[in-house]
Structures are given as C-alpha cells and as structure tokens.
Design a protein that fits this description.
Blueprint lengths: L2 H8 L7 H13 L5 H9 L20 E4 L2 E3 L2 H12 L6 E5 L5 H7 L4 E6 L2 H13 L5 E5 L12 E6 L8 H5 L1 E13 L2 E9 L4 E8 L12
Parallel strand pairs: 3-4, 3-6, 4-5, 6-7
Antiparallel strand pairs: 1-2, 7-8, 8-9
Helix pairs in contact: 2-3
Bound molecules: S-adenosyl-L-homocysteine (SAH).
Length: 225
C-alpha cells in the first residue's frame, strides 16, 4: 500500500466517502431536519476526525459513539435538532455550550453562529476538542474548563445556550445567564426518562416547550482534571 493511501485509510477517509456523508444528510432530512444551513454544515463537518481512528468508519452513521472517559459524541440527528431549535427564531451571535465532549457539536455551532463559549468539566476531552477545532480552522470558539451547572457568568448574557448532557433539573445559573429573548435547549430528567426542552426568556418569565424523549449522558458536578 502506498504511503498516501495508508495515510488516507488511517484518517478514515477511505471509509467516509462523500456518498456515505450524503446518505446521512438525506436521512436527517427524512427524519424532519429542515434547516438547510444546519444540513449544509453537517455535510461539510468531518465527524470522523472527532472519534477514535478505530471508529472512524462508523462516523457517518446516525448514532452516538464512545469518545473515552465514559462519554459519547452526540448522535448527528440530535446535534442537528438542537442546532435547529436554537436557530429557529433567527441568527444568534453569542451561544454558550455546556459539555464540549469531542467538540463535534461545538464545530457545527461555530459555523452557524458568531461566537461559541464552550464549557467542559473533563480537561483531557477539552484539550483534544481544542486541537480539533484549531486543525479545522474554526476560530470563533473559546473554551472554559469548569462546571456547566454554573455556566460562564463573566461573559453572560447569551442569546442561546445548549446543554449536551442531561440535567436532573434546569440549572438556575443557566436561566440567569440567558439574554432577553434568549433560548436554552436542554435535556432534562434522569435515567431512562429524559425530555428535550426549549426554554425561552420572555419579557415576563420563561416559556417552556417539551420536545420529546431523548437519551444523554448525565450532567455531573464539578471539574475533573
Ligand atoms: N456534544 C458533545 C457531547 C459530549 S457528551 C459531543 O458531540 O461530543 C456530554 C459531555 O458533557 C461530556 O463531555 C461530559 O464530560 C460533559 N459534562 C458533563 N457534566 C458536565 C458539567 N457539569 N459541566 C461541563 N461539562 C459536563
């Protein structure tokens, strides 16, 4: 095998052809994702670079995959759905993400909004995610190592907040850090019973929409080195 070909396979390119990616986009569309910009960004974002080489051949399946430290890269449908919900009322400039993980959802968001502020509690995951985003030249993201239950108060308020781990209840700090009209997309519940919610800061109080059953890893407490 030639060196170039070997390198291509190692990076998973041979197994992640444009056709495979196209099939994923078609599937997301058929499952109800209708925001063309979201679909386009998912089409061009190389998900195989966000998983272990050994899993690269499955990167364009619509499924969550392990990324180490007991965590998973979110399912593409969920990334698309949550992004679409955030953007439903128009473009956003400042978005906070809780749960950077592999950085895949971060990479997608960074191509859809002006600036992303991403909080992760596990240092090694954050470091790897940072490297990937630099490699892809996605520069409008800043990272914080910390506890997402607290958000990132110093840079609040945010027009959008997305949480990619399930919370037992909606963290008060995140509600506090939403700008007027701001939108929070968050899975809430525990164990098998989890619901995706969209919470909007209205002139008076908050509106809540329940969007259906989901499955996420838990939003834990405190940072981890
Ligand atoms: N969107 C990510 C999903 C990662 S899984 C991706 O596509 O790769 C959820 C992530 O939330 C994990 O990385 C986990 O470490 C992180 N997490 C869990 N509790 C957290 C907390 N309290 N603060 C910040 N991150 C948290």
């Amino acid at each position: 095998m030639g060196r170039e070909q070997d390198d291509m396979l190692r990076r998973g390119i041979g197994m992640t052809s444009q056709r495979t990616r196209e099939r994923l986009i078609q599937r997301l569309y058929e499952e109800g994702i209708s925001n063309a910009k979201v679909l386009e960004v998912i089409r061009r974002t190389p998900r195989h670079l966000f998983v272990d080489e050994a899993l690269a051949h499955r990167a364009y399946e619509d499924t969550a995959l392990p990324i180490g430290n007991n965590q998973t890269i979110s399912q593409p449908y969920m990334v698309a759905r949550m992004s679409e919900l955030l953007l439903e009322a128009g473009p956003l400039d400042k978005v906070m993400e809780i749960g950077t993980g592999s950085g895949y959802q971060t990479a997608v968001l960074s191509q859809l909004v002006e600036r992303v502020f991403s909080v992760e509690r596990i240092k090694v995951l954050q470091d790897r995610a940072k490297e990937r985003l630099v490699e892809l030249n996605l520069r409008n993201v800043v990272f914080r190592w910390g506890d997402g239950w607290e958000g990132w108060p110093a840079l609040a308020p945010y027009n959008g907040i997305i949480v990619t781990a399930v919370a037992t209840d909606v963290p008060q700090a995140l509600l506090d850090q939403l700008a007027p009209g701001g939108r929070l997309v968050i899975p809430v519940g525990s164990g098998e019973v989890q619901q995706l919610m969209l919470i909007i800061r209205e002139e008076q109080g908050f509106s809540r929409r329940v969007l259906g059953a989901v499955r996420f890893v838990p939003l834990l407490h405190g940072p981890l080195a």
